[in-house]
Write the structure tokens for this entry.
Amino acid sequence: MQYLLSSSQMKDLDRRCAEEFGLPSRVLMETAGKGCADLIAAQYPQWLQGRTCILCGRGNNGGDGAVIARWLDQGGCEVVILRIGKGDLSPDAKANLELCRALGIPILQISSLEDLPLLEEIVSDSDLVIDAIFGTGFHGEPDDFHLTLFEVVNTSASRVIAVDIPSGLDADTGWCSEAIYADATLCIASLKLGHVLGYGREVCGPTSFVPIGIPHFYYHGLPGVKLFTEEDFCPPMRHPDSHKNDFGKVYIFGGVPGYTGASLLAAKGALRAGAGYVWLLHRPELQPFYFIRLTEALSLSIPENSRAMPDSKQLASLLGEASAVLIGPGLGRDSYSLRLLEIALRQVKKPLVVDADGLNLIADNPSLLKYLARPNILITPHWGEFSRLAGIPKDSLETDCLSPLREFVARHQAHVLLKSHFSVYHDGESTIVNSSGNDGLATGGSGDVLAGIITSFLAQGLSIPEAAINASFLLGRTAEKLAARRGTPSILPSDVADNLFAGDE
């Protein structure tokens, strides 16, 4: 898996390269700038047919831009540099701008709102704009000058390439109020958290990696976040001589009347993900419905006591046969549902996935939070469910989702898969971000399919972290394949379930 570095981690690696490995910042800047110039020439030659405008800030990101300008100029490209902002330049940025000046590359100053008509003129007359204003050092809100600058760039017809990270985007959280939207981003040395979290994927566009000579062993054992990609995907193994008992028994608690679709989607996800058996446990009055709707999955009425409530002893005996259990999709939030959840949290010894209404019930009954510390339990909240569990505003997750996730896990010793347009798994030791998915999954029922896949993978022997992140990737990758054929608006959760592991067309 690839590392996702914070801005401070990247700064520390640069420092170590200088102090321990004899690679000073000027050498790293030269390597980064030339690598970017070479990559642009190789991957985007059609964008270099006319003039290239390079926006250089005061810091080292601006220095990278100056190096790019010099190498593109040497390659025969028409280049103009716009020096953005007031104040002193970093020493390396100043030195590289002076080299550009010595080569006769035009350098124009854009320092205030009064200079923006010149910016607009240059940008509109350029085929390519290279954003080297802020880099990873930006946090907070852009001022009026930069807001207007961003608008000029974003509304132009020019192609935009960002150096390391688009200006205005927080490299640690992926949050931005306004930013330059890039057609491509060149990630220097390593991907940053902001490339994939928050608005990162939307703002960055396609990303490419530019190595700068940081020793590979500097990354070994680096604490932090990793990105799960297709190369990491490793679903449960299957052998030709296997039989159904080798792939586990999944038990899913069915829904209340009117919400039965969620449990059916979860069951379909579990079956399509390879579970040997899937049992759907339902309220007795729903037996005729599930008898008609279920084919491959099995159904069983929840055993009840004399008060028509779930019977703890009979359920414990029944659930003892399970390889993994799912509770929550369409469960309901009445006293019957709460009783089922309490029994599951207390008595299930095998892996237990808690989703949807199961999470809402925990939020409504905080005394149940203590069960999340059990090592066999995984919770899979989306942002709304997590905000209720953690007691925080949902909007706060937009600016930074990792910090509250880490705080929640540390407080409750929980295993959490936090779902949004990206998914993050965290258990206090591992933090893994899933790289796949699209807006085709923004439909009710997608989370139910995912919960079924996770439970299926657990039943087949994967660990909780393995099951959570592999299932997330599979769901997202399947949606991407479907989008290539039909577009995202028409993708249904059942489509995703039916096409798991399907090949490319």
User: Anything to note?
Assistant: The CA atoms of residues 84 and 110 lie 5 Å apart. The longest strand covers residues 78-84.
